[in-house]
Write a structure and sequence with these properties.
Helices cover 29% and strands 28% of the residues. It folds into 2 domains: 116 residues, Rossmann fold (3-Layer(aba) Sandwich), CATH 3.40.50; 171 residues, Dihydrodipicolinate Reductase, domain 2 (2-Layer Sandwich), CATH 3.30.360.10. The protein starts with a strand and ends in a 15-residue tail after the last helix. The chain is globular and about 75 Å long. The chain is α/β, with parallel strands linked by helices.
Length: 335
Amino acid sequence: MNFAIIGYGSIGKKYLRILNKKLNRKRDNIFIFDKVFSKNKKKINNYFYNSSEINKLSYNFSLSIISTPSNSHFQDVVKLIGKSNSILIEKPFVLSLKHANKLIELSKYHKVKMYVCFQNRLNKSIQYLVQKKRIFNKPFYIDCCLFWHRDFNYYKNNWRGNYSSDGGVLTNQAIHLLDTITYLFGEIKKFNAIAGFNQSKLASEDIIILNSITKENSIFSLRATTRSDHNYNTEINIFYDKQRIMISGKNFNKIYVYKNGKKYLLKNYSETFYDQSGNGHEKIISLFIKNKKKSLEMFEISKNLHVMNVIHSIYNHIFSFKLDKISTKGSLLGR
């Protein structure tokens, strides 16, 4: 079988490492395309080509992986129509809602499966909550926080941190938290948001605070920043009438339960981590290799428009939103 990776940055290199581990090195071929390659080369069934050569090759790919800058995802996918049976696109799968709907149309017309990589859904702790959802019932409040550090070097590549090519902390980092909560507890129906900007480092927001209500009427709060002095643990706190559950640790590998004010470790999952983003990418690739079509359905782009709609709604809200001043008059009486 033939596999393709479009984009050879940090995530593209990670996908190559995973594929080399999972595939049959004698039988399967991996084609890597990137602008940095000026001459074709081969290394143990790994073929490296310049991005401009995608249309020149006659190969058909079982799976193509898009790991280029976000603003080029749409055009990269279009190049692969007719050349790939399935396409896995890094988040956000496109930046434009127009492009999102166009890819869904192309997917149906050409019968090409297209997926977005929301790998955190496959974390053992998240899957544990999915399995136990009936037991835990509906939470009345969900609080998420992501306090990470991204320095100037992270943004100096000219595409990260710009709305035209990527977005800010919401689109790049907190999108996984937003997706995880909507995956677990349903879509968002109402919200408000506020953002903070450090334009000496990036053009987009590096602080986002989202307050919302889900369709199940749970209150959901998300707080995220990349301006922190350190990468602190990301947390999800879920409050029920009689208990609190907290998911934390590197890539949500620990589940704690609070009962009567006391904290107990419920689950501590031991998983192999390649880097800070964990092994969710490897799990998704395994689903493709094992042809687990049913398990892959939840990643289809047609089923993941809601997160895109929420993000665009938040950005529209941020740039039209005006803060109210503190009132020194009035009364709570009669409200």
